[in-house]
Design a protein that fits this description.
521 residues, mainly alpha, Rossmann fold, 5-stranded parallel beta sheet, 26 helices, 59% helix
């Protein structure tokens, strides 16, 4: 074993024992002895990222990318890419994948990670190129999975007709693939009864491995029936899907209510102190934007509108704010120290926030549009981090919101979405928060009605223009926005603005009967 190999082996043993300082010293010794050792540079890069020493980490990363040395085992390359993705270093992971793919051209795991790095870094054209090449060359064992990824990527770009072809090709290979069925229905509006689709639903449901897959099929079937106007059957399918999902999750109204109470109490204290509130440095005065509201309230549409502006970046739905909050000294528990007037590393959190988005390969502009609907919880913190920040709050009829949510398959994080009663409870908590935020930050919050936006675009958009002091695009230009869309609105948002979804709940009026008096319906 060479001296460099010995040093690396010793350093890796130290890392397994969490003796990071000793490992770092050994790796530095290795680099001094053999300049450009790929393994040593990889470990040094990851150590520095874990310490949040970003400039130093990036210097090691650049040295790695320029080295002529190579890994002798693909597992090291896989580890490097996976860990960079875990650190939210999406574009860095793609750069590493580009380099190491030449070292192990036949390694399927690395090829898959290359695609994932491209997707997570939003290099969508690169991902399409990679999956297109792979579909042509992959063996039968992996073909369906690669075609499914290719179809999903086409849909993100708005290439729906091509996506439908690939989803159907997947189903020809794997008739019970619930992901392909979901994608197939998401990528179009079905105009008439389709017996082939009915066979897809029946076969996939009967052969599903578990309730999660069965629910996914039922959600797709619910959309199919809704599209063709069979509303009673659509609701029955949605109910079945939600019952299966609800059995897998837990939602506590009491926990949510207490979270809202604590948030409002904290920022009541913060705003009473005003300028006396302690901060840890100069605030970031960039006028970033939060687009908030309940899920399915029109937030993706507004993001598409803003994405056409030259200085605005469509941030999409990411955990950027939560990830950034965790970089502060108090982690996710920022309410108590803020209520006590303590610093929460505002500068560190704000820098982490912008750094997160700059790791997307398509990042451009200056102002980030963050459209995670449930960021309505964090409006106070956002204004604390970015005093010049603006909030656009999408308001929509609560019953239309509830109906639209009820037809979608959400992750376990959204445990409330499987019951109309719970959805409307969360809607009420959202309204309670926004009412207080509007009192405190009213001039920096625009309450925009979804119904008004889709019914009278020119008038509604003038409100946005005055609020942001920009010239907004016309209706036709919105469809030309090139940012990838990954939300349930993936197909709808690329269609001409229309009123199809206004009053949707009336198709299912009987289900809403218990709530009509509560909302004066």
């Amino acid at each position: 074993m060479s001296s460099s190999a010995q040093l690396i082996a010793q350093a890796e043993a130290c890392l397994r024992r969490r003796e990071v300082a000793n490992a770092e010293a050994l790796l530095m010794q290795c680099v001094a002895q053999e300049n450009g050792n790929a393994i040593a540079l990889m470990h040094l890069c990851l150590i520095q990222f874990s310490k949040r020493h970003y400039e130093t980490a990036e210097s090691y990363l650049n040295a790695f990318l320029n080295t002529r040395s190579a890994f002798t085992a693909s597992q090291a390359a896989e580890h490097f890419i996976r860990t960079l993705l875990q650190f939210n270093r999406f574009n860095d992971a793609l750069k590493v994948a580009e380099k190491v793919s030449h070292w192990f051209p036949s390694d399927l795991t690395l090829r898959w990670l290359h695609v994932q790095a491209a997707l997570q870094s939003r290099a969508i054209d690169k991902a399409l190129s990679l999956t297109s090449q792979w579909v042509a060359a992959v063996d039968e064992t992996h073909k369906a999975q690669v075609m499914l990824t290719h179809a999903n990527t086409l849909a993100k770009k708005g290439h729906f007709s091509d996506a439908v072809v690939h989803y159907e090709a997947v189903l020809a290979e794997q008739p019970n693939n619930s992901y392909a069925i979901a994608g197939l229905l998401k990528s179009q509006r079905v105009k008439q009864t389709n017996s082939r689709y009915q066979k897809f639903f029946d076969h996939a449901y009967a052969n599903a491995a578990n309730d999660d897959h069965r629910a996914r099929v039922k959600f797709a079937q619910a959309k199919y029936f809704n599209d063709i106007g069979e509303y009673q059957q659509a609701w029955q399918c949605a109910e079945q899907a939600n019952q299966m999902k609800q059995s897998q999750v837990q939602f506590s109204r009491d926990t949510l209510s207490k979270q809202v109470d604590a948030t409002l109490q904290t920022f009541s204290a913060v705003n009473q102190r005003g300028a006396a509130q302690q901060t840890d440095g100069e605030p970031d005065h960039t006028p970033h934007i939060l687009v908030v509201g309940m899920p399915r309230s029109g937030t993706t549409l507004v993001e598409q509108m803003l994405a056409t502006l030259p200085d605005y970046y469509a941030g999409g739905e990411t955990p950027a704010l939560e990830v950034s909050i965790a970089t502060g000294r108090h982690g996710q528990y920022y309410l108590a120290p803020l209520a006590q007037g303590k610093s929460i590393d505002e500068t560190t959190i704000a820098q982490s926030y912008t750094r997160y988005f700059r790791q997307f390969s398509n990042f451009a502009g200056h102002i980030i549009v963050n459209k995670v609907p449930t960021n309505f919880f964090h409006v106070g913190l956002f204004k604390h981090l970015f005093p010049q920040g603006k909030i656009i709050n999408l308001q929509r009829d609560p019953f239309d919101v509830a109906a639209s949510i009820f037809f979608e398959s959400f992750s376990a994080q959204f445990a409330y979405t499987h019951s109309l009663d719970n959805i409307l409870f969360v809607y009420d908590q959202y309204q309670r928060l926004m009412a207080e935020w509007s009192q405190w930050y009213g001039s920096d919050i625009l309450n925009l009605d979804y119904e008004h936006l889709v019914s009278n675009y020119s008038v509604a958009i003038s409100q946005v223009e005055q609020f942001l002091e920009v010239k907004m695009p016309g209706e036709a230009e919105i469809r030309g926005a090139d940012n990838p869309v990954e939300t349930p609105s993936i197909w709808q948002v690329r269609q001409p603005i229309n009123r199809h979804a206004v009053g949707r709940w009336t198709r299912y009026a009987e289900a809403f009967e218990p709530f009509r008096e509560r909302y004066n319906k």
